[in-house]
UniProtKB/TrEMBL annotation, chains A, B:
Domain Fe-containing alcohol dehydrogenase-like C-terminal residues, every copy: 188-380
Requisite cofactors: Fe cation
Keyword Oxidoreductase attributed: yes
UniProt protein name: Iron-containing alcohol dehydrogenase
Ranges of residues in domain Alcohol dehydrogenase iron-type/glycerol dehydrogenase GldA: 8-173
Keywords: Oxidoreductase
MF GO annotations: alcohol dehydrogenase (NADP+) activity; butanol dehydrogenase (NAD+) activity; metal ion binding; methylglyoxal reductase (NADPH) (acetol producing) activity
Protein origin, superkingdom: Bacteria
Biological classification of the source: Bacteria, Pseudomonadati, Pseudomonadota, Gammaproteobacteria, Vibrionales
Family: Belongs to the iron-containing alcohol dehydrogenase family.
GO cellular component: cytosol
Organism (species): Vibrio caribbeanicus ATCC BAA-2122
UniProt KW Ribonucleoprotein keyword: no
Amino acid sequence: MQFTYVNPTVIHFGQGQIKSIRQAVDVSQKVLVIYGGGSIKRNGVYDQVVEALQNHTWIEFSGVEANPTKETLDKAVALVKEHNIEFIIAVGGGSVIDGSKYVAGAAKYQGDGWDILTREHTVTEAVPLGAVLTLPATGSESNMGAVITRKATQEKLSFGSPAVQPKFAVMDPDVMKSLPERQLLNGLVDAWVHVCEQYITMPTDAMVQDGYAEALLKNLLTLGKQYNQRDNDSWRANLMWTANQALNGLIGVGVPQDWATHMIGHEFTALWHVDHARSLAIVQPSLLRNQIEVKRSKLEQMGKNVFALEASADLAERTIEAIEAFYHSLNIATHFNDYQENKTTAIDNVVAQLESHGYLKLGENKAITLEKTREILESAIQ
Amino acid sequence: MQFTYVNPTVIHFGQGQIKSIRQAVDVSQKVLVIYGGGSIKRNGVYDQVVEALQNHTWIEFSGVEANPTKETLDKAVALVKEHNIEFIIAVGGGSVIDGSKYVAGAAKYQGDGWDILTREHTVTEAVPLGAVLTLPATGSESNMGAVITRKATQEKLSFGSPAVQPKFAVMDPDVMKSLPERQLLNGLVDAWVHVCEQYITMPTDAMVQDGYAEALLKNLLTLGKQYNQRDNDSWRANLMWTANQALNGLIGVGVPQDWATHMIGHEFTALWHVDHARSLAIVQPSLLRNQIEVKRSKLEQMGKNVFALEASADLAERTIEAIEAFYHSLNIATHFNDYQENKTTAIDNVVAQLESHGYLKLGENKAITLEKTREILESAIQ
């Protein structure tokens, strides 16, 4: 087990914490507040941010969409450059925070920001940013990763840099009160798959990482079962903190990681605008069944420790069934049939996108070739 | 649930990581290496540190004892001031790292360093320090706390400050190869009690904190059962990472904490030089039995989730028995009879020390008065 790890994001967790941004950002710094479609104006979050920033000089940029696009974000990049912005506050969910990371990095680069996603430019310098989280799901509030879409070419790619990790993250569970059910459920599923990507690989005897991952999975299972208690303070706080821990780097230190479900799922979102979390639920069960032999040992461990299943020769198979049943219990589909072309063309399109992005071999063993992906899609797409 | 949390220590974990201090400390900074009794010269750790620092300007201070004393450490404080030291590297276990934190804080203070322990001086500035851990136990390598002893008055007190938290911690499990059994066992027990102090309190529905705490406790239980595999790389790595997580702040965010076992145990060490971990094993079972009613709910949860005990009316009692059995399985005593005075005087001495330090009410509910402490000691001391 070898790793270097630190998580430098200061977490301000709890009800009423939005006011902490007043101290978290130096009053001498010129601030850009970035947000999405305006829901923060209806639920009171915007007003709390305005109140906290009353002594700061700040401007705003709104309209960052779900699956944030380079096309929209480049307007914010121009704004940062024009106004010499010194600090960015992202107010929103994973899309707004991911988008703000792109803005923070691209604003310190003279070329086209998309170069960051194609690896032609490496972000080593960025405008510092902080996050006010409004939708627990992606963990973006305290990690260094971001996923950005280019509308023109229907591409969805990711990048990461320590320079764009938020300096602070405000996590007030009260902001979840006004979330649509669809987004709450997406958050639960997204966090679940984040843990799985770092856990359902091969055994490496990493007891802390496995134990933490299993604790988070059991939390999400319980929160799913208690979904009718979602208006409870403690339900909200537990989902918010669990989703954060699912992707802040900690459970993934020094262990193999998969992420094939994400890479394939991204293409569903890019091609057919499937919600990110739902794209994962579509891909994952078919992928696990396809890769069951290499993943058997961890699936058995998960069956025993997460689902409390009795040992049997087909424990790994039953674990995948339990995962699928978990999605179905939340009314999340595990197959896709909402394409306009025929099934073969739909599969061809996903495979072609993956190929064009250079994702020829995915997964912790690089065992998921394009041929394997095609097999997975044969089952996932109906 | 309300908290602010960050852990800024960069962890360099794994075999061969000692060399990473070369990059972790700027070559322009004048370094003081602090260590203990010289075991690092026998096990090769010293040589690795010397090799890594070959381009740095550095001096050393050795002789920090277990339960480090103000009297010894003040010599290092004088050295830091005399040589204008800009960075301290602590090479050792919790005692050396705690002692180095005292040195780092006291060196930036004009008065007597003991003022830090009596709260007459608050550390806001310190010489930056890093740690090379040689004994997994206290978690001091990535937290802001330290416990220091004043020999002259047989006092053992603690302080904490973000300014003394190590900038980095090197955790190479290979350093454990030469540890005496007694210290390995102490580390296991110390980490166990650290988790308990943050977990066996009252239920607050904090699912992540509880789930992580239970994962760590189960790890320590397993590592104790697998004690005959202690020469295995993976056993060592798992103990080292588990002990770190037990006291890096994460499992304690936003939840009640106890620490009464530590406060009472410290007096056993100050008065009779009982190993820190062993003082905890002496105090804890008697304390838990004394406080069983307020702790019943969490003890039952621990019985179920950590020890896999079946439900029963006396589940809390059986959980305490299981904890005690765990200590006994490691040949760690849970009672003390090694005093020279008679039992009543021994108890009086502990109570008098606690009183003189102002510890009149201990525990998460402030329910452990001196009278309750006396009851606990009646059982713990035989």
